[in-house]
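seq as requested:
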Amino acid sequence: MLLGETFAAALGFVVRLHARQTRKGKSVPYVAHLLAVAALVLENGGDEAEASAALLHDAPEDQGGRTTLDEIGRRFGSRIKLIVAECSDSMADTTTGEAKAPWRLRREQTLGHLQVMSRSARLITACDKLHNLREMLADQTRLGAASWQRFSAPASDQLWFLEELHARLVDAGDGWPVLDDLGRAVGELRQSIGQARQQ
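struct tokens:
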């Protein structure tokens, strides 16, 4: 499958939209995460619309809430808008100071929503969480327990969420390779947390 104008336009849009945003607690441009998630989507059989939605999946949550989601609909059509909406765990407009719901509540809503999510949104969710988890594990290896200080939930809560998410994604029966990778990464996190508790 060749990528076309939709993907190119989505990439240009997110580069501008997230231009001033970095990964939490890092100097890495936020777009690096979006590119990584889109790459995982493509590697797991996603089509151009799904890869484009992967680039856009954090735009409403981080850059303007429903106003940004509506703009995505105007620019990229209803299918991509719907996928992005399904992947967004908050529609708060953080650019105006509107607060997101508490971490635990947003994660419980995500878990509850998985059973009615489209296959496209489940694929992006799996790829998003895998890339986030790989970063967490790399940071923990490099920085130890201090790596968790930049998150709004402790490692044990992150593990609870990722274990539940992985189990529910597997139960959905989509069978993507990313689910095996996510399962292995969750196992690494579980082991790492267990070792830290023993020290």
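The CA atoms of residues 67 and 88 lie 13 Å apart.
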